[in-house]
Amino acid sequence: MISVTMDMVQYDCPYIDVTDVADVSFHTMHWDFNTAQQELETRILVTGDDHGALTNGLNELQDHERMLGFELLSRRGDTAVIKSFIGQTNAMQTIRDHDGYITGPFQIQDGSELWNVGFDTGADADDALADLEVENDFRVEARNATSFEDYLDVIQHLDAAKGLLDGCRELSETERLTLQKAVDGGYFRTPRDATLETLADAFDVSKTGASKNLRRAEQKVLRRIVAAFPALVEEDRPNRDEGNSVPER
To answer: Distance between alpha carbon 48 and the CA centroid of its chain, in Å?
Structure first.
């Protein structure tokens, strides 16, 4: 499989249009394409810069001429979950015409959309990218060949991967920034290139405060990593058992 990540600008996508006029972003949670009606049904997480921005964005989207259906499922503060229906865009049709398929969620903000798509062959990917240039602007952010074994490995460990993502989402902004600064600054290297003092100075807190933020971040992330260990142990066990078995005589 050829995996392609693109930063895409479509000129017939209502979600992209809305992010041009409202301070909101979209992250797809589920999508389903109805081939008979040529409609894309999506459930999307909408995030606004604030409560007013979210209201403005939802109104703009609901009134967009290319929206075929809109339903507000839930809303809390500056986030909402919606169910929506749009017609097939040119880029969607081009991808499907070349046997392409979606491999990850759409992320839409600031007038562009991050696409994760897959193709069975490099030729399919090349042809699709060439045709996309006719009516769309895009930049290929990444292109990788994924073997069947790699793809199977991802599928078999989706729960573990989700657990790691959930652990990252549990971090507060302060914990996330502190952990990122510690890693980037060399706190975990030997010898250390950063210390608690440098972390404290970076965030204008005491050394004790920096230590607490770092420990809380480490605890949340490491707890999720350790929770993934059983899946890896089960995967390795047949090989270890085979290596330790007594050959038949």
So the answer is: 18
